[in-house]
Design goal:
It contains nine helices and nine strands. The protein has 217 residues and is α/β, with parallel strands linked by helices. The strands form three sheets. Strands 3-2-1-9 form a four-stranded parallel beta sheet. A three-stranded parallel beta sheet has the order 6-7-8, covered by helices on one side. The chain is globular, with a radius of gyration of 16 Å. It holds the Pfam family Aldolase.
Length: 217
């Protein structure tokens, strides 16, 4: 089994994907630990701040030492230079908010899964032509499950994952599952801490609950 197929298989088994960025390295590692304790096995860190490369490197080092079965990828990749930087650091997969041919080629030449962000059938078709097997529907809350239901029959060979505004409640998750998603990317709504939180146990519990919802109990 090649690395791309392996990553897709793990996403299928563990379809709750946290999408996260923080400037503090220790916070990043604590969030990674809490997510893993809650059953998360695929985690997307985003390239959204000046500390992203060094924090991602620290998270990878921690993963390598403690969670070898966790897939740790990088998101918000918009240029081939960014993709090259994070591939050199050791990213397991590349997620983009856009569709770019040079990023696709670089990811595939390194044997890595590339997940492009799409908003229209034309973009989805272009991503498929470039070799994408999993497409990120972005922004998820703008497009909605109805969009996926309408376009999914046009792309029977593709898998889909909404990201951006995906809510953690059962109703929202069920509507996406019924539309036919393979996985769900959870950003800010996953990481809203309770007011009385003193550690990250709430995040572990939330991940456990989400995996139960997405895997239907």
């Amino acid at each position: 089994m090649n690395a791309i197929t392996n990553t897709l298989e793990i996403i299928g088994k563990y379809p709750v994907i946290p999408v996260y960025y923080h400037e503090d390295k220790d916070t990043c590692i604590n969030v990674l630990k809490a997510s893993y304790a809650g059953g998360i096995r695929v985690f997307e860190f985003t390239n959204r701040g000046e500390y992203a490369p060094e924090n991602f490197k620290a998270m990878l080092e921690y993963r390598n030492a403690h969670f070898p079965d966790l897939k740790l990828g990088i998101g918000t990749i918009k240029t081939v230079a960014q993709a090259d930087q994070y591939i050199s650091i050791g990213a397991d997969f590349i997620v983009s908010p856009i569709v770019k041919e040079d990023i696709a080629k670089l990811a595939f030449s390194n044997g890595l899964l590339w997940v492009p962000g799409c908003m229209t059938p034309t973009e989805i078709n272009f991503a498929e032509e470039l070799g994408a097997s999993l497409v990120k529907l972005f922004p998820g809350d703008t497009l909605g499950p109805g969009f996926l239901k309408a376009i999914k029959p046009l792309f029977p060979g593709l898998k889909f994952m909404p990201t951006g505004g995906v809510d953690v409640n059962k109703e929202n998750i069920d509507s996406w599952l019924n539309a036919g998603v393979t996985a769900l990317g959870f950003g800010s709504k996953l990481f809203q801490a309770p007011q009385d939180a003193t550690d990250f146990n709430w995040l572990t519990e939330r991940c456990v609950a989400l995996l139960k919802l997405v895997n239907k109990g």
